[in-house]
Amino acid sequence: MFVQQPVPGLFLRERPDRRARERFEHRHPVQINGRYALARDISPKGLSVVMAPALVVGDVVRVTLPEYPGERGEVTTPARVARIEPQAGRCILGLEFVQ
After folding, report:
1. Ramachandran category for residue 39: left, alpha or beta (phi over 0 → left; psi -120 to 50 → alpha)
2. Is there a contact between 87 and 50 (Cβ–Cβ < 8 Å)?
3. pTM of this prediction?
């Protein structure tokens, strides 16, 4: 176990979510440029996924959402990589849908 001494003057503050749209849990596989990734959540403006690091902020990718029961078929749309958070050999990517 690792133990660190407290850092004087360091305070973590909860900040309000700056996203304008509500997000919905979406724990299903999706494809990013043909590579499978696990989605975390989705909103009308974007998608959060977990995948191996291979992209950089600003890249435009092709997101494919599979066909779900009751839906019309798979959906493919472009998205821009808005943020990347490294997480133990994987990354959490914030993708913003673009037209």
Report:
1. beta
2. yes
3. 0.72
**Residue in the structure block whose two tokens are 């950089």:** 56
**Residue 20's pLDDT band (cuts 50, 70, 90):** low
Q: Look up tokens 């909860």; give the residue.
A: 14
Q: Interior CA angle at 27 toward 72 and 68, to 5°?
A: 15
Q: What is the pLDDT of residues 35-86, one digit of tens each?
A: 999 999 989 899 999 998 889 999 999 999 887 777 778 889 999 999 999 8
CA distances from 50 to 8, 11, 13, 47, 76 (A): 34, 28, 25, 10, 18
| Torsion of the alpha carbons at 28, 37, 86 and 9, rounded to the nearest 10 | -20
Q: Does the domain at residues 24-97 carry the CATH identifier 2.40.10.220?
A: yes
Q: What is the 3-state secondary structure (H, E, C) of 2-39?
A: CCCCCCCCCCCCCCCCCCCCCCEECCCEEEECCEEEEE
